[in-house]
Amino acid sequence: MPVRVVDTATPSSQPSPGQEANTGHPSPPSCSLLSAGRSFAGTQNVSSLQKDEAWKVNVRIHGCDLDQGYLCGTMEALNVPLADTPVVTFWEGEIVDAKNYTFFTGKWEASPEDDIRHWSKFPSFTPLLGQIETDGGKSLDFSNYPYIFMRWKEQYFVNVGVDCGLTIAGFYYVCFSCSDGSISGFYYDPNSSPFQKLELKCTNEKKSGFTFSSYELQ
């Protein structure tokens, strides 16, 4: 949820076709660190050419269905300039599993070139690139891979209005480590500063170990 930037430039690439299901692939490995109730804390770098800036960020997972390649949660930014309170958004995620979703986004103004450029920022993606260049990654088996790749798309603001000065027009490319629950991500929005990095660590050893303040999701 970076600061809204007014930019009249037209993106040069059009979205690629939508996702195609491939039912012949198993789901990514079940991971207790990626489950409803898990919480994460860290920072999002929102630096621009004018200044260096990072926001403290909390994330909580509210639902996760590996078979359907779906998860959802809330994101809370704590030190947003000009905001009187932490800004909370609700997001939904797509799990890249070569069954429900591939590495190619096909929407949200992201071209295949944008996808490869952002996924390639993750070292854990490098071993997969050759197969993706061959068949789009449709033959990849993620059932034993130690990382889970996702896209997170913020859907709406929970506790502030749309005139808060922030934008949720973009989405996050996300890589989750099954070994320690760490999360890294990069925000993509053609009208925002590129490659804003999200870095999170799991904060609760048990599901009941950490909670956000109470918000009503409508």
Automatic annotation (TrEMBL):
GO terms for cellular component: GID complex; vacuole. One of its GO terms (biological process) is protein targeting to vacuole. Residues 1-30 are annotated as: Disordered. Residues 9-30 have a biased composition (Polar residues). Signal peptide: none annotated. Belongs to the GID4/VID24 family. This is Glucose-induced degradation protein 4 homolog. It comes from Zea mays (Maize). The lineage of its organism: Eukaryota, Viridiplantae, Streptophyta, Embryophyta, Tracheophyta.
